[in-house]
């Protein structure tokens, strides 16, 4: 990999923007005819609010009453295929938007803390728009952003499964953003790595899986990506990949979190978040996507599901609403067959929220959470 250095202007820091400075590195010689490379920025947990620059171009954090040097922006490189399945040929913009939401906008918080009021099992909740045009420091001021806001205290024990991971851009960026060094004063990042998050990134196409493994394995050792990110095939169905996938989940997450899994427990109970970006394409994915989400929720009522969907046609909003209602119906049907009283009590208040997403660069997005 060839590493690139980006100079971030004071104006960029002042606005608190995550705007990705991307450089597509291409070569028409040798095997590079098959691939494209793109450099992405890791969202920073440093909050650049109330910043002014003096004549010397220095940055000052007025809230802290003195000069404040932002940590250097981390970058990482992702390879995509020039030909192949949809997920392998490019990193779709929704992945970077979801990465920003999860890291800097409180998106990793429990879904029940982000939804003001819980519906019953018959209805999905339609909330106000999620405004990502505001900088992180002012993010919670928008009415649709209540319960969210800048998140700079990364918790430990995130066990994240990503569906439809494609190139692996979201998983790699999330691993780098959430797994920090224990020496916070070490701007060079030479402290000991603390693993706050582990991920299992999934897809179904063989070429996509192979390329994703490459993108994970080729990240520099110091950022811990190859240690914290696993790759596994997963088809979307009621069995959630069957025993093989359950064993992969157990290998990746066992021994982490607040509780260690008992022999009788489902390995999917170890997962704290199920995420996906740009994974819904109307009638083509309605049944499989609703099946895997509802089955996951029935086996692990506490999992936080966060899916960002890009609309591509005039009926897309109806598609997302139908997806939400289908998930609710399948969860309700599953509860009717399940005699587990504890699970029924947890999921009796289960609902799905759908909201518009406002963004400066990417239009027509919906966020679905449950």
Could you explain the architecture of this structure?
This protein has 370 residues and is an alpha/beta fold. β4 and β5 form a beta hairpin. The strands form 3 sheets. Strands 7, 8, 9, 10, 11, 12, 13, 14 and 15 form a 9-stranded mixed β-sheet that branches. A 3-stranded antiparallel β-sheet has the order 1-2-6. It has helices at residues 10-15, 86-89, 93-104, 111-114, 169-178, 206-217, 225-228, 242-253, 286-299, 316-337, 341-347, and strands spanning 24-25, 35-41, 51-53, 59-61, 66-67, 75-81, 125-126, 130-131, 158-162, 197-203, 229-233, 273-277, 304-310, 353-358, 365-369. The chain is built from 11 helices and 15 strands. α3 (93-104) runs parallel beside α5 (169-178) and α9 (286-299) crosses α10. Helices cover 29% and strands 18% of the residues.
Largest sheet: 9 strands, mixed
Shape: globular
Distance between the ends? 38 Å
Tell me the Rg in angstroms.
Answer: 21 Å
Low-confidence stretches: 1-30, 48-67, 150-154, 181-191
Instruction: Note the total helix count.
Output: 11
Structural class: alpha/beta
H-E order: HEEEEEEHHHEEEHEHHEHEHEHHEE
Helix content: 25-40%
Subunit organisation of the chains: single chain
β content, as a range? 15-25%
Average predicted confidence as pLDDT: 77
The number of strands is 15
Secondary-structure topology with pairs:
Layout: H1 10-15, E1 24-25, E2 35-41, E3 51-53, E4 59-61, E5 66-67, E6 75-81, H2 86-89, H3 93-104, H4 111-114, E7 125-126, E8 130-131, E9 158-162, H5 169-178, E10 197-203, H6 206-217, H7 225-228, E11 229-233, H8 242-253, E12 273-277, H9 286-299, E13 304-310, H10 316-337, H11 341-347, E14 353-358, E15 365-369
Parallel strand pairs: 7-14, 8-14, 9-10, 9-12, 10-11, 12-13
Antiparallel strand pairs: 1-2, 2-6, 3-4, 4-5, 13-15, 14-15
Helix pairs in contact: 3-5, 9-10
């Amino acid at each position: 990999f060839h590493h690139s250095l980006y100079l971030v202007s004071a104006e960029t820091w002042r606005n608190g923007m995550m705007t990705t400075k991307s450089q597509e590195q291409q070569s028409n010689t040798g095997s590079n005819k098959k691939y494209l490379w793109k450099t992405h920025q890791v969202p920073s947990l440093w909050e650049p609010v109330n910043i002014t620059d003096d004549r010397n171009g220095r940055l000052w954090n007025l809230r802290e009453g003195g000069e404040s040097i932002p940590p250097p922006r981390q970058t990482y490189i992702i390879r995509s295929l020039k030909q192949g399945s949809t997920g392998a040929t490019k990193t779709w913009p929704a992945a970077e938007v979801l990465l920003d939401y999860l890291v800097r906008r409180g998106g990793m918080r429990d879904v029940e803390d982000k939804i003001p009021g819980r519906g019953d099992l018959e209805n999905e909740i339609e909330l106000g728009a999620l405004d990502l045009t505001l900088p992180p420091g002012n993010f919670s001021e928008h009415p649709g952003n209540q319960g969210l806001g800048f998140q700079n205290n990364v918790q430990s024990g995130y066990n994240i499964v990503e569906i439809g991971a494609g190139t692996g851009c979201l998983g790699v960026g999330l691993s780098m953003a959430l797994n920090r060094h224990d020496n916070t004063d070490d701007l060079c990042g030479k402290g000991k790595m603390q693993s706050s998050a582990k991920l299992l990134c999934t897809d179904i196409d063989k070429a996509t899986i192979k390329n994703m493994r490459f993108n994970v394995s080729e990240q520099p050792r110091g950022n811990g990506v190859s240690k914290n990110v696993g790759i596994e095939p997963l088809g979307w169905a009621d069995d959630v990949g069957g025993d093989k996938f359950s064993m992969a989940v157990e290998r990746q997450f066992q021994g982490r979190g607040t509780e260690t899994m008992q022999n009788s427990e489902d390995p999917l109970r170890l997962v704290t978040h199920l995420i996906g970006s740009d994974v819904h394409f109307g009638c083509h994915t309605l049944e499989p996507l609703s099946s895997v989400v509802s089955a996951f929720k029935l086996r692990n009522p506490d999992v936080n599901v966060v899916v960002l969907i890009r609309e591509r046609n005039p009926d897309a909003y109806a598609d997302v609403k139908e997806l939400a209602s289908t998930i609710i119906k399948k969860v309700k049907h599953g509860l009717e067959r399940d005699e587990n009283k504890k699970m029924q009590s947890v999921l009796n208040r289960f609902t799905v929220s759908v909201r518009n997403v406002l963004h400066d660069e990417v239009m027509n997005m919906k966020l679905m959470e449950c």
